Inverse folding.
């Protein structure tokens, strides 16, 4: 039921198509690649094999090899697991935090609400990238740390979004109708307010995944994110940037993948915004 | 249990003031409070309907919502079957809310857009562990059982309002606040919904507070009518009497605005000049004096607020010259 009306929107269809391809490849990584993203063989003989050609051992490399003779296609697909996984998990952390903070601040007015909003504004005022660099420098960089850091610095927008929605919904007659028939506060929040507040959150989450992937790539590019030899699109771009002239495919392939996925997330987010309004749905 | 003939609802000196905002980021002096409801008292006997009429901003909706404690009052008392509604704790309030319900004005925002009709109607049954059936409720408000699976956006305004009425009925209330239930509907649908409310009242022995902004709608359903202006009741009388012999010039003006179906009937239309003053800064003396068309209007009206007093038995009016109506 969901598919047809989302796909009727051309942007949505395009975004979904790209994401399906990437997610399918990432899930089926061992099937569509050689399954060894970090294995290095005879480096001197197999490094910088150009795309669509075979190395000395007769192994075919669709996007060539990098400076260690590793298959770029394999690393790209395994990197998709890491990069998209980090993006989705970070946004999940941010959404959970943001919805909880926003709902509490919006529905239980009083000192708690004031404190939560002040905390949100404070966190919003900190420059995210500087904070990321600081945190990444303080602890040993790891994939889990990147998820935590991106999630803990990305919830404020969603909290403010949810806060505003909850406050406006709490004054709507259907909520008062529920109060009048004797519904308790938690039930009203769970059944009447949050389901109606989630549309903008879903849109923000779809847009946020793209943003988180870019931030992860930025951190990894700076060497503060996902650490080699684990492939992520960010650290693949870094390692390829030295050889951009002689072997451009090493950096361009993850770069193109990054752009495609981020564009797909944005298109999907925009399409969801239009499509999720229950009043418009036929 | 109340004895027959006694009062079901009693409102005593109800006041709701909205405190003024403080200027200078909350540090300056507060602005004047908005006196939305300023000392309203009335009673309703079981099975009767009180029509509460006034312009927008007169405080009539606030009265209805405060009685159900959808808003907290500033002061005053509401007694329902002798219980002080404002003194109840959460659990007893929830129990009382089974007996007092509300039908909202706007049928478009009064139903949860993400719940089907069935889910909307089942919720109150679940909350109070009642054995009612959704199909029986739909049948009672004149909707086919097939509507149960629909979402609000698939219904017309009249159908939505019927669902809103069914939700109010689901908990088997004794008293319903009808907050302008037909104002947002097409004229042709208004009559249907009014008739439905009248039928339900007869069948279930319901008591209504019927809020409206024009006297024509109230005429067919109310036993008594109270007219509000700037947060106060200015006239309160049995319906037949208020339509035949209004005592307050504001009521007279409202009645003259009711459309006359007979084009040959000669009728003098009283046009009030200006708008209702801000409830934050009510005029001194009689609140109606700046707009009052009464020929006898005097200095006394500008300085001395007229009390709501009996003019004839059962007919109250707040005008210094109520004995000589226009």
């Amino acid at each position: 039921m969901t598919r047809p009306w989302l796909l009727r929107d051309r942007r949505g269809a395009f975004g979904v198509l790209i994401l399906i391809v990437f997610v399918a490849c990432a899930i089926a990584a061992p099937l569509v690649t050689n399954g060894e993203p970090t294995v290095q063989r005879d480096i001197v003989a197999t490094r910088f094999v150009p795309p669509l050609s075979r190395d000395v051992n007769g192994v075919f490399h669709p996007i060539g090899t990098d400076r260690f003779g590793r298959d770029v296609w394999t690393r790209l697909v395994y990197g998709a697991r890491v990069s998209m996984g980090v993006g989705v998990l970070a946004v999940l952390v941010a959404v959970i935090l943001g919805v909880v903070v926003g709902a509490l601040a919006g529905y239980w007015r009083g000192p708690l609400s004031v404190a939560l909003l002040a905390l949100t504004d404070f966190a919003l005022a900190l420059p995210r990238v500087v904070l990321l660099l600081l945190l990444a420098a303080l602890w040993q960089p790891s994939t889990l740390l990147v998820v935590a850091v991106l999630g803990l610095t990305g919830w404020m927008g969603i909290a403010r979004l949810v806060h505003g929605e909850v406050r406006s919904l709490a004054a709507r007659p259907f909520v008062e109708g529920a109060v009048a028939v004797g519904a308790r506060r938690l039930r009203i929040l769970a059944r009447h307010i949050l389901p109606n507040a989630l549309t903008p959150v879903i849109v923000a989450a779809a847009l946020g995944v793209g943003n988180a992937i870019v931030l992860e790539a930025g951190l990894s590019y700076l060497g503060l994110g996902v650490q080699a030899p684990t492939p992520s699109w960010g650290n693949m771009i870094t390692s390829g940037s030295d050889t951009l002239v002689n072997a451009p495919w090493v950096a361009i392939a993850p770069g193109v993948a990054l752009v495609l996925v981020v564009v797909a997330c944005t298109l999907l987010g925009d399409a969801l915004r239009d499509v999720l309004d229950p009043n418009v749905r036929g | 249990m109340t004895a027959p003939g006694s009062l079901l609802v009693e409102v005593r000196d109800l006041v709701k003031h909205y405190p003024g905002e403080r200027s200078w980021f909350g540090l300056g002096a507060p602005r004047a409070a908005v006196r939305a409801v300023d000392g309203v008292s009335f009673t309703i006997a079981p099975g009767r309907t009180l029509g509460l009429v006034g312009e927008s901003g007169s405080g009539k909706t606030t009265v209805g919502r405060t009685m159900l404690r959808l808003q907290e009052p500033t002061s005053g008392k509401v007694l329902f079957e002798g219980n002080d509604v404002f003194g109840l704790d959460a659990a007893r309030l929830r129990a009382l809310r089974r007996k007092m319900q509300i039908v909202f004005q706007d049928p478009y925002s009064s139903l949860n857009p993400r719940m089907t009709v069935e889910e909307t109607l089942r919720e109150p049954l679940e909350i109070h562990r009642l054995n009612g059936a959704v199909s029986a409720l739909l049948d009672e408000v004149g909707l086919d059982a097939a509507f149960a699976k629909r979402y609000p956006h698939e219904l017309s305004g009249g159908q939505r309002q019927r669902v809103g009425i069914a939700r109010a009925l689901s908990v088997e209330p004794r008293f319903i606040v009808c907050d302008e239930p037909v104002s947002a509907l097409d004229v042709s649908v208004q009559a249907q919904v009014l008739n439905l409310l009248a039928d339900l009242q007869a069948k279930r022995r319901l008591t209504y507070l019927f809020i409206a902004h024009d006297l024509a709608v109230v005429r067919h359903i109310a036993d008594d009518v109270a007219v509000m202006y700037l947060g106060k009741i200015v006239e309160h009388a049995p319906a037949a009497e208020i339509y035949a012999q209004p005592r307050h010039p504001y009521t007279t003006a409202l009645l003259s605005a009711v459309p006359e179906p007979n084009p040959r009937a000669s009728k003098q239309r009283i046009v009030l000049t200006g708008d209702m003053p801000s409830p934050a800064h009510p005029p001194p003396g009689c609140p109606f004096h700046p707009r009052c068309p009464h020929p006898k209007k005097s200095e006394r009206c500008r300085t001395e607020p007229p009390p709501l007093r009996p003019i004839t038995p059962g007919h109250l009016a707040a005008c210094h010259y109520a004995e000589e109506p226009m």
Remarks:
- The CA atoms of residues 78 and 179 of chain A lie 51 Å apart.
- Chain A touches chain B through 20 residues (CB under 8 Å).
